[in-house]
Design a protein that fits this description.
alpha/beta; Rossmann fold; 2 domains; seven-stranded parallel β-sheet; 18 helices; 40% helix; NADP
C-alpha cells in the first residue's frame, strides 16, 4: 500500500488540533498568525471565485473560526469593497478577541444577529460561524442564521467546514450551511469528502497555509483520497507474448429468474476490464439471451450446486451476487461458492445472505455494499451507517476480514487493518439500477489479473466512477449502467502501460 501525498490525506478534528499545536510549537508560530494566514487564503479564494463581488457579509461565531472571519472582513474592507460583519455571540478566546479588535480598528462595525431581517443583502456571504469542532445540532439563533443564509440566493463561502456539518463524518448534525465553496485550512477533513458533506461543502479548495510537511509527520491520517496518478502504477503492463489464460478466469454467479441482466452486466464488465476468460453460471432461461447479447461470455445453465463444481474448479476469481436472489437456488450456489475459498467479490444478494450467515474470509475478498446492505451486515440501519460512513466501513472490514467498498457519494474503501480510501469521482446519474453489478465485474477482473484485494478495490472503484463521469458528459439524468462498459475500456487504457 503506497503512502499518499500529504495533499490527499484526510484528518479528524482531534488530529487537526494536534497538527495546529505542532505548527505553533515546532515552528514558533503564534496561533493568531495561523488565523491571519487562514484569512489571507480565504480572501484570495474569494477574489478569484467572485472577482465582481462588491458587497460581502461575514457571519462570525465566537470561536477561532469567527476570528478567521473578522480578519477576512478586514481584508475585504481594505480592498475597497462593502463589507458587514454579523456576529453570533462575542469572542470566546484571546485570539478571536484580537481579530475582532483588528476589525474594529480599521473602522468596522459588529452587528449582532437579531433575526432574518438583520442579515443584509450581499453578493457573497461568508460562513465563519463554528468551524470543525462542532459536534451537536444547531439551535436557536444559530439554526435560524444558517437557515436564513441557505434561503438567500447569493453564494456562500464556508471557512474550513460548513457550519452544522460534522468534520469527522460528513453527516449533517441538524440545520447546516449549504456552501457554494469551502476553503479547507491546512489539510482536508474527512467529512468534506463523503455522504452529505459533498453537497454541504460544494466546491472545495485546500489552503495549506504554507506549513511544511514536518507538522504532519507525527499524525497518521488513516484515511486518504484516491490519487489517479498514483493508481496508474497498480495495473501491470502486458508484454506482447501473452495469451488469455494469463489474465485470469472470472466466474460470475447469479441471475435468478427475471434477473439475467444483472449477471450479464457483471460478466461483460469483467471482460471490458481485461479478464482473460469470463464464465457465467445462471438460470437456464437466460442462456440464449446472454449468448446473443455477448457471445464472448461462456454461459453455463446451472440448475443446482452440483453443476457449479466443475466451473469452480476452473475459475480463479468469483463475482458472486448480481441477480442471485435469496431463494433456495441462490442460497445453494452462494454456499458452495464460498466453500471453495476462492478470491471473490460479493455484492447484492450475496451480501444479504452473508448478513444471515456471517463469516470471516481467509481468501482475498471484496464486499461492495450500499448503505442498506451495510446496515444489514452490521445488524443496524441505514441512518446509522450514513451518520458515520467511516466507522461503518471500518467495522465491516474488521468484522468480515475483507476489503469493503461502502458505495454512495464519496465511496469508501476500507481494509481490515484500518486504512480507508475515499473516491473523489462519480456523479448522481450513477444512482441507477445495475451500477453495482458493473462494479462487481470490474473489481473481479482486476483481482483475476493479479491485483491484491485492496488494489483491485481502489482501482476498480476509481475506474468505475471515472467511467461514469465520462458517460455522463451527455447528461446525468437517464444514465444507464451499460453506458459505462465502453468508457471503462478508455479509462483503463489510460492506466495501463501498454
Amino acid at each position: 500500500m503506497n503512502t499518499p501525498h500529504s495533499s490527499q490525506l484526510l484528518y479528524t478534528t482531534a488530529q487537526m488540533r494536534r497538527i495546529d499545536a505542532c505548527a505553533v510549537a515546532a515552528l514558533g508560530l503564534q496561533s493568531f498568525e495561523l488565523m491571519q494566514r487562514a484569512a489571507d487564503a480565504a480572501f484570495a479564494v474569494l477574489l478569484r471565485r467572485w472577482p465582481q463581488a462588491r458587497s460581502v457579509v461575514v457571519c462570525c461565531g465566537s470561536g477561532k473560526n469567527g476570528g478567521d472571519g473578522y480578519l477576512l472582513a478586514r481584508l475585504v474592507r481594505q480592498s475597497g469593497r462593502d463589507v458587514s460583519v454579523i456576529a453570533l455571540g462575542t469572542p470566546a478566546d484571546v485570539d478571536s478577541q484580537a481579530a475582532a479588535d483588528a476589525w474594529r480598528a480599521c473602522g468596522g462595525m459588529v452587528h449582532p444577529f437579531a433575526g432574518e431581517h438583520s442579515l443584509p443583502l450581499a453578493d457573497v456571504y461568508v460562513d465563519a460561524l463554528f468551524g470543525i469542532g462542532l459536534n451537536r445540532p444547531l439551535e436557536g439563533g444559530a439554526a435560524l442564521l444558517v437557515q436564513t443564509l441557505n434561503a438567500r440566493r447569493s453564494p456562500v463561502l464556508a471557512l474550513d467546514i460548513p457550519s452544522g456539518l460534522s468534520a469527522d463524518t460528513g453527516a449533517r448534525l441538524g440545520p447546516c450551511i449549504s456552501a457554494t465553496l469551502t476553503v479547507s485550512f491546512i489539510a482536508w477533513k474527512r467529512g468534506q469528502h463523503t455522504g452529505a458533506g459533498l453537497d454541504a461543502c460544494g466546491e472545495c479548495e485546500l489552503a495549506d497555509l504554507a506549513l511544511p510537511d514536518s507538522v504532519f509527520e507525527e499524525e497518521h491520517a488513516g484515511a486518504h483520497l484516491l490519487d489517479w496518478n498514483e493508481l496508474r502504477g497498480r495495473l501491470p503492463a502486458r508484454s506482447r507474448d501473452v495469451h488469455k489464460g494469463q489474465f485470469g478466469h472470472v466466474l460470475a454467479i447469479g441471475g435468478d429468474h427475471g434477473t439475467g441482466g444483472a449477471i450479464r452486466l457483471a460478466g461483460e464488465a469483467a471482460l471490458r476490464c481485461g479478464a482473460g476468460l469470463v464464465s457465467v453460471a445462471t438460470q437456464p432461461e437466460h442462456l440464449t439471451a446472454l449468448l446473443a447479447a455477448r457471445p464472448e461470455l461462456m454461459v453455463q445453465p446451472i440448475a443446482g450446486q452440483q453443476e457449479l463444481e466443475p466451473l469452480l474448479q476452473r475459475a480463479q476469481v468469483l463475482a458472486l451476487g448480481p441477480g442471485l436472489g435469496t431463494r433456495s437456488w441462490g442460497h445453494a450456489l452462494w454456499h458452495r461458492a464460498l466453500a471453495s475459498a476462492k478470491p471473490a467479490v460479493l455484492d447484492a444478494d450475496a451480501l444479504n445472505l452473508l448478513a444471515r450467515q456471517p463469516r470471516k474470509f481467509s481468501a482475498p475478498t471484496v464486499l461492495t455494499p450500499h448503505p442498506a446492505e451495510a446496515a444489514r451486515l452490521l445488524a443496524s440501519d441505514s441512518a446509522h451507517v450514513q451518520a458515520n460512513r467511516y466507522a461503518a466501513a471500518q467495522a465491516l472490514a474488521e468484522r468480515y476480514h475483507a476489503v469493503v467498498v461502502l458505495k454512495g457519494a464519496g465511496s469508501l474503501i476500507a481494509a481490515p487493518a484500518g486504512s480507508v480510501a475515499v473516491c473523489p469521482w462519480g456523479n448522481p446519474g450513477m444512482a441507477s439500477a445495475g451500477m453495482g453489478d458493473v462494479l462487481t465485474g470490474v473489481i473481479a477482473a482486476l483481482l483475476a489479473q493479479g491485483l491484491s484485494a485492496w488494489d483491485a478495490a481502489c482501482l476498480g472503484v476509481a475506474a468505475h466512477a471515472r467511467a461514469g463521469d465520462s458517460a455522463a458528459e451527455q447528461g446525468q439524468r437517464g444514465l444507464l449502467a451499460g453506458d459505462l462498459l465502453l468508457p471503462l475500456r478508455s479509462v483503463l487504457a489510460g492506466l495501463a502501460h501498454d
